[in-house]
Amino acid sequence: MGIHQKTKSLSSRHSALADTFFQLKVLNSKELTDMRFPLFSEKIKEAGFSDGRIKPTRIEIFQVNIGKLCNQTCSHCHVDAGPDKKEENMGREALEKCLEILAQYDIHTVDITGGAPEMNPNFRWFVEECRKLGKHVMDRCNLTIVVANKKYHDLPEFFAEHQVEVVSSLPHYSALRTDSQRGDGVFEDSMKAMQMLNAVGYGKEGTGLKLNLVYNPTGTFLPGNQASLEAEFKRQLKRKHDIDFNSLYAITNMPISRFLDYMIENGQYETYMQTLLEAFNPAAVAGVMCRNTISVSWDGYLYDCDFNQMLDLKVAGERTHINDFDLAALESRDIVLNQHCYGCTAGAGSSCGGQVA
Amino acid sequence: MSKKHYFDPEDLKKFGNIGEWQKPLADKFFSYYAEVFKEGALSEREKALIALAVAHTVQCPYCIDAYTSGCLEKGADEEQMMEAIHVAAAIRAGSSLVYGTQMMNHAKNLTM
Structural domains in chain A? Predict the structure, then answer.
């Protein structure tokens, strides 16, 4: 069964929100809303960051968004990815530059994301080269790509051969919840893909092959307790589909891009921002992912995280591109903050690795 | 103040204010409440589903809003939530119907 897309990309719809500057104006109450929220940089003073600034700890994760091309068009996608994004994809030259950086510095993990990163023609080569450098490689796989086309059917074997950690989005163990966000047919294809991953040892004890799931709420509410959700996902996926996985990461929806569009369309933006603000957890601030991650875009620019990347908020300082990568400068920079950062500090906190507090 | 209705969703946010007029009892209640809903022998999700069913039985609009959100946050889906409400509805229906035995007893006493 193919996927019936839920929506189209903001850019193909010519939405005002396709312009990141417009998104920032909304987040700062200068467009579409008069409701003002305290500045995030002021709020973190309550968490002991008394000068309103956050500094990196040490860069341990090199997250590369190798392109916006995707076989899905999820209604909450912060990348605004989709099948129409044929241009914004990383070429060989930029990937070679990334490898050069990785060879030079002691950054232990390469986190490959997209879009559907496997659709980039250089994907497999890049994974192999990263592994040759001894890096731990994570692939943010949407699952359905594995069954989308014959040429991707052997991805589970490829991942296993190169000991790639597979991190996959699955917002729910119910088809209705999952398909309502990711498109009709996504759940069924995701189950098939997970079974194929299980068949080569992913998610199975003793194999060392990690299959981790990413849960995010399928609406304008916050994620519950990560451990409880993991237990319930394990029970339900095993019971109904005989599927195993390792860990579940609970992630909060960021109020940007298509999720922002969804909220504005449904009159829920202000309520959601209020929810994030009321759930502000000072203990989550110290663990935010931008402190140990650097995010690279398809065209080689550097960002504090994938969300800042999608808002086109480049790292602070002069050196903002892989061609003049300077680790020491990056590790002493101020992280660029804005109102969407409330998404990472609500409740138990949120990061690409799940809850942080 | 001239509200034209008894229930205002905004009032739910003021629940904590009940402590303004009797703090020790409110503190005890909220502390007990928080303890009840923690993960225990029952999961947080199961407790939220029970709360949702009870909310429909006592027909409390605030509780229905709160535990619809709560159930979704704890990972329940629509099917589970509707089943929980059917449990409440079945008990309500059954609790009326079971009195049918009393009616039958009495009717049998009165009739030939």
Answer: 16-344 (3.20.20.70)
